[in-house]
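#struct-queue
[09:14] JT: dropping the first one here, sequence first, then the structure tokens:
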Amino acid sequence: MIPIRDVIPSRTTPFVTIALIVTNVLVFLWMPATDSVDFDRLIRAWGVTPAGFTLSSVATALFIHAGLGHLCSNMLFLWIFGDNVEDRMGHGRYLLFYLVCGLAAALLQVAVDPDSLVPMVGASGAIAGVLGAYLVLFPQSRVLTLVFIVLVEVPAVLLLGVWFATQLLSGLGALAVVRPEDMGGVAFWAHAGGFAAGAALVLLFRRPERMRVEWWDQAAG
């Protein structure tokens, strides 16, 4: 299932979401070819390696992607769901929320596999936090989704619930795998951790006045 757009209009311009997408794209264009030795060195220097975890690596890893497909899928989810979450939090709170979710995601992955030498990169953990927040804020929303070759409106609770369950079950399956690379190098626990952190922290970061339907009319007037 590939999400296309949701049905919740954003009442403000999502400056932070746009800036995050642009930054991720520019970093990807700046990076060396993904099949090069230089790229491998960059991943190891700037990615989050559990066995050598540092806070600075979390900040850099959030803007590095392992390939075009990795980048495009992450940015698609951020674009569809990020604008509404940013609208309900405000720009500054949303940016802080995004970074905190990215940190929470990395910490859970490190806690599950602290001795791993496989570096983690990508914005998936932080974006998973955005998905968790969206599910809490808009449980009745629907998402226009491409299912095989048919466009259908899918309840957001179903789409995001299935996504979270997939990450959680895949993470549990990864615990039985001897070599992390056998799971394709996907940090499933980071995804699950980011989602859970976002669903919990949204109650702290959301701005109550922005939850009212009439908020934007009052602000515009």
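[09:21] JT: and here's the second one, same format:
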Amino acid sequence: MLYQNRITGGLVEVVSQHGEGILMCLDANEEVIYIDEDDLTPHLDATMEQERNETRLTESLAAEGVKPAKPSKKETFPIDTRVNINLASARQIADALPGVGLKTARDIKDLQLTLPGERFSRLEQLKGVKRVDWEEIFKENLVRVE
């Protein structure tokens, strides 16, 4: 089962539990991260896509004679089409988000440069740019900050 991290918007797979309410998870890059279980929401569409990818790749590997025909998690993880604010250019942000023009997108990137590591670490940090209806964008699940 895949989950969406409410803090960053990223997709993760739970590996195990570590202590009270802390879960060890793998992200799309197979990096281990620890997340409070209250910050995770089940994501059924991504889970079904991952299962379809695994079935397709397993059949393909078996047809090629690869044994065992087991694709890696990195290969089966669904492609995330939401805009990653940390990696996108101002133009990409303006093109991807409704109601966000190039000037506002530049303001988003300027805000990013003022943050530690010059990266957003939580979706809530985006609310520092007031001209955007962030609640609607978060509701429509259009962005992430991984």
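[09:30] RK: nice, looked through the second one.
[09:31] RK: The mean pLDDT is 92.
[09:31] JT: good to know. The helical segments are 44-63, 73-76, 90-96, 102-113, 134-139.
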